[in-house]
Design goal:
Ribosomal Protein S4 Delta 41, Chain A, domain 1; 2 domains; alpha+beta; 5 strands; Structural Genomics Hypothetical 15.5 Kd Protein In mrcA-pckA Intergenic Region, Chain A; 10 helices; 212 residues
């Protein structure tokens, strides 16, 4: 199955939630969800009907999966890891997703969106504890230091500098820190309650869906 390459604003409209997939644009009047907040398709304005329990669980799973930019097989693999861990599976799932390198780069403010962060990682613009890592799904541990590569092309990358201009350090999640001068940040394992989201995610429904 190929990764979705169509208009990402359609994803937010389909889920009925603003998932902030286009970074700064999502905060402007140009946001398609603000202009066309109905479901995509010719019957989007008139589509009605109450979702079944399965439908609600499916939509919640799709919402979280699409927010982190994962394919179904990738997302399910994270669920299996969360299931094998001690503790609450739903919370474990969110912590694992937040520990991905591309997500942490987005949370630290080096990128305006997870998609942009994923592309930067693949192009080798970041190091973890001094070692170049080009795997977006690389799982970080407490104390890991994420740094913009010392390579000149990375240090001068316009996308990174533009994103960092908009960073308010006082508003960063509790589990990441940022040193703008050094262009590096430190990660620590998050608590579920520390994960900042604009919508109320119901990850327990993902567990219920996969448990059927």
């Amino acid at each position: 199955m190929a990764r979705y390459s169509g208009p990402v604003c359609r994803i937010c409209r389909r889920e009925g939630e603003k998932l902030y997939l286009k970074g700064e644009r999502c905060l402007t009047p140009k946001c398609a969800f603000e202009r066309k907040g109905f479901i995509p398709g010719m019957h989007g304005r008139t589509r009605r009907g109450k979702l079944s329990e399965y439908g609600i669980q499916l939509r919640e799973k799709q919402k979280i999966r699409r927010m982190y930019g994962l394919l179904e097989a990738q997302f399910h693999a994270f669920y299996e890891k969360a299931l094998a861990m001690p503790g609450i599976t739903a919370s474990n799932l969110m912590v694992l997703l937040e520990s991905r390198l591309d997500n942490v780069i987005y949370r630290m403010g080096f990128a305006s969106s997870r998609a942009s962060a994923r592309q930067m990682v693949r192009h080798g613009h970041f190091t973890v504890n001094g070692k170049r890592v080009d795997i977006p799904s690389y799982r970080l541990a407490t104390g890991d230091i994420v740094r913009v590569s010392e390579h000149e092309r990375s240090r001068k990358l316009a996308a990174i500098h533009e994103a960092m201009k908009r960073v308010n350090i006082s508003r960063l999640p509790a589990y990441v820190s940022l040193d703008k001068a050094k262009m590096e940040g430190t990660f620590s394992k998050p608590e579920r309650t520390d994960i900042p989201e604009t919508m109320k995610l119901r990850e327990q429904m993902v567990v219920e869906l996969y448990s059927k």
